[in-house]
Amino acid sequence: MKKRILRCSVILFSMLFLAQTAGAALPVFTQMAAKAGKAVVNISTVKTVTARDSLKRFIPKSQQGTPFEDFFDQFDQFFGKKYQQPRKERSLGSGFLISQDGYIVTNNHVVEGADEIKVKLREEGKREKGYLAEVIGTDAETDLALLKIYSKTPLPYLVFGDSDTIQVGEWVLAIGNPFGLDHTVTAGIISAKGRVIGAGPYDNFLQTDASINPGNSGGPLLNMRGEVIGINSAIVASGQGIGFAIPSSMANDVIEQLKEYKKVKRGLLGVMVQAMDDNTAKALGLGVNRGALVASTTPGGPADRAGIKAGDIILAADGEAIDDYSDLTRKIGRLTPGAKVSLTLWRKGKRILLTASLDERSAEGLASEESDTSGGQENGALFLGMSMRAPHQDELEILGLQDIRGLLVVGMERDSLAAEAGIVPGDLILEANQEPVNSLNDFKKIVKKAKKNGVVLLFVKRKGQNLFRSIPLD
User: Fold this and answer.
1) CA-based Rg of the chain, rounded to a whole angstrom?
2) 323 pLDDT more than 80
């Protein structure tokens, strides 16, 4: 009986100890919320729009220039001037001061197209004070904007922390104005890093489960030292506890450029890159599936001048590993025009080191992979599920080539390995495993040698663009 009582006492003591330990580990946000909250502002905007403008927002980009968009034009003609009468549209967002002289960071989508921007901040012992804000600069590609207000007295402000060092699972605090409820504080953890959600070319979001709602956009995400490690920017409308913040490591560079130049100047490497896969890595003799595969270079551009070629895999930039093609886009985009970048490449089984001097990238300068196309031609010889033949002169002119070379894919067996690899009718196969293909016999010989590795890598021309596709030979 005494042993049982002693055992129960030990268990009870252990439970109380664990409960106290767990309770002690939970953070208290009161001081940080009070201090940081003084630098968080409420942003309200007024924008002049017409009913037509409001409706046009709901036209997907994929439907612009189609009969779907024509419907709105007919609607416009039917209702005439009444439909076009302007009206005021108001919206709310958040932001935060980053200097005592009134510079404010927010999202570009909070202030984009606004005719008037009002900023309210909370001052102790006083009513909320309002200021008219001036737009210093915006950057749509990262969804950031820099504003300025003018005050006779120094203003409270927040400082940027290092988002690169924050770990998944660390506590964070979000402050903002969700649904107009000013200075709402929510807490959570970092759920993930490096999220790509299709918002722009430089997606690299922090994901958090701290409650973020409409109106939180532009507000700070703080670490436990009260430093800004993210700018709250997006949510998953159908989910709960899934919010996204622009990391401070990216935002800080953008804000500094907006302050100095009123715009962001980004480096341009001048390459079209595409994603790697296991088969491509295997075909090129690379032990691990990572890096950015160069499909083509811009003639006379930085990559071309540096000696980078189609088929190269960019493994590192300035000593930092490149995980995938989007990682390369982000790293080059953080560099300024004229900067020299050291690139580690994988070419025909060897690592080589080249240096490129970057040009300035325009908004249209970001290379992207072309979409698939198909076409119908007369039948050719069948191999690996593809019907191929030598191209005609007029076909080469369409593809931007002068010499008759390569094999034109004119047909495809359904469910073939080539079809699964993404080869489509209309592709011109120029190389296989980085060897020129001038005839079907050339192609068959290369494929025979490639069976040792179990995969063949094809270099194809499609709609004037270069692409790589790998076909498993198992």
Assistant:
1) 28
2) yes
Q: Is 178 helix (H, G, I), strand (E, B) or coil?
A: helix
Amino acid at 426: G
The tens digit of pLDDT for each residue in 190-200 reads 999 988 876 77
- 294 CB-near residues (< 8 Å, 6+ apart): 271, 272, 273, 303, 308, 309, 310, 311, 312, 313, 314
Mean pLDDT estimate for the chain: 81
Distance of alpha carbon 42 from alpha carbon 102, whole angstroms: 14
Residues present in the chain in total: 474
For residues 402 and 21, give the distance between their C-alpha atoms in angstroms, rounded to a whole number: 75
Encode pLDDT of 348-375 as tens digits. 889 999 999 999 876 444 433 333 333 3
Q: Are 355 and 306 in contact (CB under 8 A)?
A: yes
Q: What is the pLDDT of residue 374?
A: 33
CA dihedral 186, 192, 197, 201 (to 10 degrees): 110
Task: Count Cβ neighbours within 10 Å for each residue of 314-349 and write b for 16 or more, e otherwise.
Answer: bbbbeeeebbbbbbbbbbbbbbeeeeebebbbbbee
Q: Are residues 172 and 210 in contact, defined by beta-carbon separation less than 8 angstroms?
A: yes
Residues whose CB falls within 8 Å of the CB of residue 330, separated by 6 or more in sequence, listed in order: 202, 204, 250
Spell out the domains of the chain, with CATH numbers in brackets. Answer: 34-148 (2.40.10.10), 171-261 (2.40.10.10), 267-360 (2.30.42.10), 381-472 (2.30.42.10)
Highest mean pLDDT among 72-76, 158-162, 232-236, 410-414: 158-162
Which residues are annotated as catalytic? 109, 143, 217
